[in-house]
Amino acid sequence: MEKIYFVKMSGAGNDFIVFDRKINPRLNLNSELIQRFCDRRNGIGADGVITISDSNEQNFVMDYYNSDGSFGALCGNGARCAVKYAQFSGRLNNGGAKFLANNILYSGKVLEGDAVQVYLNPPSNFRNSFKVKAANQLIAASYVNTGAPHVVINIEEMLRDPKNLNSSYDNLDDVPVNEVGREIRYLNDFAPEGTNVNFIKVKDGKIHIRTYERGVEAETLACGTGAVAAAYSGLINEKLVPPVYLKTRGGDELIVDFKKEGDELKEVSLRGPAKIIFSGEITVNNIH
Questions:
Q1: Is 223 a catalytic residue?
Q2: pTM for this model (two decimals)
């Protein structure tokens, strides 16, 4: 039996268990442990697990694991939480951070209050105006990789009843995100790794968004890389201008900013709340 110390964090409702490897040097995560930790009834409960390690070159190294135990792609809200934790643990000198995630260098900074901003690589592999077959209909969608793969669907393109061509969704709350999101996530179009799926509605210049996250295999209250994907789609399809404001399922606001030079985006950033909820310890058997 051994005690593992953790911090529970929330990035706009996207929640994570953070393990500091300096405090837990014998920690050896595996899929079974991660699933147990993330279980909301028999564990701590979270959308994913983050480990923070020291680095000689950067302020820290971040590793992210999905709640199903798989090693995750970039997690935007998780990265913001990691920067906040790095400040809390004394790894930052002036609130600015440089860190590695999946062996890619990122940067971020702690702002006033609970706000944290991270800078991401420009979106890639953008595809627009194609159709996905789900919910017994063909749905117009776009696709972009923002550190993780994302499909973005404007719900006005979805039909409540495929037999009624005038019956589109106009209320984001009514969309069956888990059912349709899961179906699209596993389509052969996005094999073998699958995709995250974002459902959006643009209202008064702001994107309202709900996201089905692969690896969690359910809707989450927010998704950082999904917010960036939706903002990029909004730039192309809705003529939105930065900064783009997004209202998440959990009610918090995320802000995506960038500079556009020709067809290229520069200085892509994600800003929003990141906070420590509580800290604690959990006892496990045979962690090494």
A1: yes
A2: 0.95
